[in-house]
Task: structure prediction
Amino acid sequence: MLLSTACLVACGPKPDARPAGGTPPPAPEVVVWTVAAAPLELTTELSGRLQSIRSAQVRARVEGVVQKILFTEGSDVKAGMPLFTIDPRTYQAAAEAARAEAATAEQALARNRSLLDVRAVSQQDYDAALARHQQARSALAKAELDLENASVQATISGRIGHALVTEGALVGRGDSTPLALIEQLDPLYVNITQSEAEQFALRQAVRRGEVSPSAQLRVDLVLADGSLYPHPGKLTLTEKLVDPNTGTVFLRAEVPNPKHELLPGSFVRVRLSQARMPSAIAVPQRAVQMNAAGPYVLVVGDDDKVAPVSIQTGAMSGDRWVVNAGLKPGMRVVVDGLQKARPGSQVKPVTSPAK
Result:
């Protein structure tokens, strides 16, 4: 009985056994890029640092004790807006005394002028009265300026940082004390350095006729997540001097910052457009792989089978590599699904729109 049962178990059909002639699994789907020659804008990616176009340090111009801080730290301020009040009582008294002295000198000058007309005073007495009048006016102007400076105002519009002093602090003694910093945030400068060797190679390529200079030197910022900042900038300065210590050339661009998303002092990646090719082949950067022989891409043939193709890469055009050799128009390059596209395997290609 036990033997018969064992025979039935051993000889019966296996649950996981597949019937002969079963259908193979479907070919994996991959996204392909159809190669085409087109005019290309050549770009280079450099490092840069953001800087305010205008930056003003608010300082105390007169000596005294800070009575009030009139702004909210980290807020936007307008030029001429009061920021600090320095105890004005000393300067008010000095201004009143200077006004009285100026009025007395004005009266004395008028009296001496009328007496001079009738020869009742000498020319020397009149000149002395004129000098006292001028000195009194100068003293009044200084006293009024000191009183005005007791109210510290913003010299430019922009974003103000934190206060560098507190209420009750003595400022302005012996030097103009820094009180706060204002920075203009829109637009911003982007300070860039580029290797002189790169610029020389570009000039040589232009001279050989391989590329032409870009009509518009466009500047794009690459954000931390790899996306492009939505407001492109423009190159405003290329210095004609090479830094002897670094072998680099200084460039400056101006970038809009309407929402104040960019902050001065931040390091950024800059994609700079400097030349244009009349016709070239380029593939997305993510499609290019490396092996011991160099860069290569996976190409889907007419039979929908994958084959590796060695390529020779050149300059960059945005997020694409310019391909100098190895590809021809019409070839289909795998750009997504690379992990499923094994050389020699069958795939189901889905065309990616060229961008």
Summary: The radius of gyration is 39 Å. The longest helix spans residues 89-117. Confidence is low (pLDDT under 50) at residues 1-19. Helices lie at 2-11, 89-117, 123-149, 196-208.
